[in-house]
Amino acid sequence: xxxxxxxxxxxxxxxxxxxxxxxxxxxxxxxxxxxxxxxxxxxxxxxxxxxxxxxxxxxxxxxxxxxxxxxxxxxxxxxxxxxxxxxxxxxxxxxxxxxxxxxxxxxxxxxxxxxxxxxxxxxxxxxxxxxxxxxxxxxxxxxxxxxxxxxxxxxxxxxxxxxxxxxxxxxxxxxxxxxxxxxxxxxxxxxx
Length: 192
Hints:
Elements: E1 6-8, E2 10-13, H1 20-23, H2 43-46, E3 69-72, H3 84-92, E4 96-99, H4 104-113, E5 116-119, H5 122-133, E6 138-141, E7 146-149, E8 155-156, H6 161-169, H7 173-179, H8 181-189
Parallel strand pairs: 2-3, 3-4, 4-5
Antiparallel strand pairs: 1-6, 6-7, 7-8
């Protein structure tokens, strides 16, 4: 699905070094099907030891329902390289994660699967976090490379140009190649 400009309320996750096992515990990784993984997102954090939902966890609050942007702490997605973490975030409904920094492999997995990781300098991240805590909508414009808040100057971000193009077109690397198959075939026919 092509990435559009996202305007949404945010969910804040006030923790640094949230690893992929916290995003989706390993015990829920029994297959390679993406559907339904959202129900396991932050499972141990969303539930009490007896299995009941923790009403104090951000994703369990009524104000968080329908939010498409997660505002997380530093080094989000560290730990193992499990792609399921990105799939669980997407299945929950998130399209953007804004954080001061991301683990490299998480960021790569996110970009390849249609989830936009927006790394902002700490001062800019604090502005977004404050808006999110105040339940103000945040606009993320991938084409322009900016985050906008009502009444604030735009906050710019950068991502790899090829990844940006794939997100805007709604394809992964393989889909990008397949879309260019006629040009590739034409090129090959012109070679001895």
